[in-house]
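Continuing from the previous page of notes. For each protein in this section, the sequence appears first, followed by its structure tokens. Read the first protein now.
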Amino acid sequence: MGSLKRSIGEKEIRYLDLEIGNRQNLAPYGWVIDDQVANPGLGIPFYKTVIEGANYEHADWKDQACVRTAQIHWREDHSVTWLERHMEMTQGFVLVGNSPGLFVFGEPTHDREDLDEKHRALPDPTRIKAFILPPGHGIIIKKGTWHDFPVSCGPPVSAFVLNTEEVVAALASMKAPEPMNHGDCYKLRLKEHFDFTWKFRDPRPFVHKHGLVKAPMPQQLMGPEGYGAGMKRTEIKPGWAAGTKVFVVPVVNVEVFTPGAGGPGIQPHLQSRPELANTGWRNYGNRRGLERLSNMFKAIGVKATAVINSEAAQVESVAEVLKSSGWELGAHGNNNSSGYAQMNRGEEEAAFAKVL
């Protein structure tokens, strides 16, 4: 489990690493349903070609099991908001179809002799884990196991759910998502009990890496705030510009090109060697144009932003102008002739190192 410290006033985030669930690592939480027969040897004489497994000894749905299906769709929020437990039944989930599912489980605490009464009513933070169950697998969870509903790993995942009428009725009776402790459903909103937030890792790269989905899944590029997914920034406070509604932010590209590289949209008549039009304005920009722009912005009291190629910063005259300009600087690759598409990971890392 990893953790990430936030700024003052924000909760620490604890990340749950993902692992593929199997009979061994899920044993503290329940009994895995897979393609292997559990407890084989039940003697039913009618089916000679069938290996029969004995009943799950500790599986219990009180008076009668209530069965239903559910389909879970992708969600962008990876926070673990709720955990619940049941003391009078062993809830079951079986994934049907071709999609894996993500489960967050906590070991039972109700019978832990090393905990006091208060902490037996809470999940143990050191024993919370996130598992990926492959398609066609399932689990019957033990009484008292902390859990929430399965989560999509990208594509929709369908589940066959074994429950009791009592628990289903209790959940359906809630007018809004709230903590509850009735109908054999003890459900906690975790932020009310812990000073940190649990999150599980994005499952999409994980299930693709392990071959649990058929094809790569699209990654979310934009977050709900309207900028890059996963980014966190401080928004500008309302009223900071005294009601001004239109702003101009000057950005100056400071670039270099490999010798002989053509420009964008090269026209047939621009094919000489050297190609004078593009070569001319490129040389002028770094030799004179950059300095003139710096002086102009100084004269009018405006600070610009320069987005620069790392090779441009190695040109002494360019570096001197940028240092004296007072501008903010932004990274803009190594040079403006080299592309970065279709690289493998090693090539990307080498390109980053070269630019930096």
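Done with the first. The second protein uses the same format. Note its length before scrolling.
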Amino acid sequence: MNTLPLSVQRVDQEPAFSFLSRLAHHNGLPAAIFAEDLGIKFSEVVAGHADAIIRLAARAGVEPEEILGWTPKHLGDREHEFRGEIFHAKSIKATSIKACPACLRQDIESGRHMGALRAQWMPRYSYICHDHGLPLVAIWSERTPSRRYDTSLHLPELRDRIFAGEFDRSPREPSYFDTYLYNRLRNGRGENWLDNFDLHAACVFCDLLGRAVMKLNGQTTIRLEETTKWIVPAQGYEVALHGEEAIEQLLFELEKRAEAPQARPKGVYGDIYDRLAHDLTSPSYDQFREILARRLRKAWPLGPGDELMGEPVLERRLHSVLTASRETALDRRRLRKLLAERGFVRPSGEGLTDAWELFDAYDAQSFLSDLDDLVSAKELRDALHIPRPQLDLLREDGFLQPKLDPDDAKPLWSLKEGTRFIDDLLKGARPIHVAMHGWSSIPQVCKSLWIRPGEVVRLIQAGELKRIGSYSQANGYGSILVDRDEVERHISRDEAPGMTIEAFAKAVGLKPPEARRLILDEQMPSTIAQNPKRKARQRYISAQDHAAFDYRFITLRGLALVLGDTWQSTLSRLGAAEVRRFTGDGRDYGPVFLWEDLEEKLICRWPSEQRVREIRASMHSGQPHDH
């Protein structure tokens, strides 16, 4: 294969797209057109395709290994391979291009006409040029890859600004983290503890550790400028350099600053817990997650209603003096003295605070069971956070019966049994930090639906309710959250003559006011009957009413199920066919359509009765339907 008469010298660490852009500029053409003249595509070079880069190298007269070794290769699924490491697209192919202005000036002054990018600058956590000590700075941003990586479109225009020092920032010495990343990219893995992990995962973990260090020091990362963000992973690297023991010590120091574990792991540890527990769940982060999980199992008195790395805690393994005090209803000072006498904990003043002084829940189970845990009704209500009317109703419904109920004295309850009652209701509950999207406490749902708390408790105990929440802003009985609509479906299914308008609207994909408007305008039938709970007359949608609606109408959600498509694509098809929503006499009934309009426009035919039943069942369950 003939080499080009006009070629350029490749710069060390230069990726293929930068080299091709300079070569194209030297030959007076845009990169995309020049690539086509070479028989390749610029997009293939940007993606790191070996065949295209080998052909480019042959025409340019350079060794292909030199270019391939410093060009990120797209693997699919937003992953890239670079220097033997796997990077997520956002961490190696950002929309902003970083560079060292001193390197670019040096390139131009050496007669290269246009500066060359270095692949070393591309990773998210590359912050500094190791040749000049200047911070890397974003010199342009472009969302379209073909324009972003064609350096000939940008660098000539930036030449004057580069030489004017507009992109120069104050020089600094590379941090240990900067040097670690630089050496690992050039030389591969060494004997550093972090070399046991994928490079990108190690960098992310250093960043999270750095955030934890700053949290410990009362600092925040929110207002950090781009040129100072290097401080965060640099501080984290100083911890990670010493391995797992140093990491656990950092977590311990954060715990000491917290008043009590009730702040929850995210409140104590910050971003390192939140990201590892919920976002960074790929195998690359497994060992980092295990370090944090091991610390939680070792140092946190977790029980039902809590979570461990995003998973609900089903049983308690550790107690603190504080959690045991709540469970036994004994004064903390008295309980700690008793526990210390038996060797379960250290005496007050010698160990940690009551919230953090821990002991094995299994070993102390018999001892705690033997303690006198009988309390009055008021003490039970206060300990379990149950309002007085709720406790009275629960007693009438057969729950929370007193342990002792003599005729000549006030009844007494076992606080242990009361706590177990709450814990059982919270088993498998998902942590809820903001009570939105239909979440209601038991008192709230009882007031809303005119039902007794015993009915809700029985549904939970029988496993009928699938959505149970543990509200982090409340304790005990008040922390139990249920889905109001789910409760309503269970309590009314055998008694009410049909669905409420609200339930019908939710099931078919309309808003309640839209469904109510259809009914009041007599566009669909409804059934007026007595509410079995409130005893007031109201409108319901019976099975016959529902069938009448299905015979004449279908909503956007239902039509998407019929067509086996997304609602967005279905909406586009309707627009293309000029099918309009049903409006009656100019009324807004929401995304509802007439079957006769759909058949006329050949969108689809009215399905069989069996098919309608299948679609309706799929819509009501909220589950995808097999097409």
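What the second structure shows: Confidence is low (pLDDT under 50) at residues 622-627. The radius of gyration is 33 Å. We return to this in next week's lecture.
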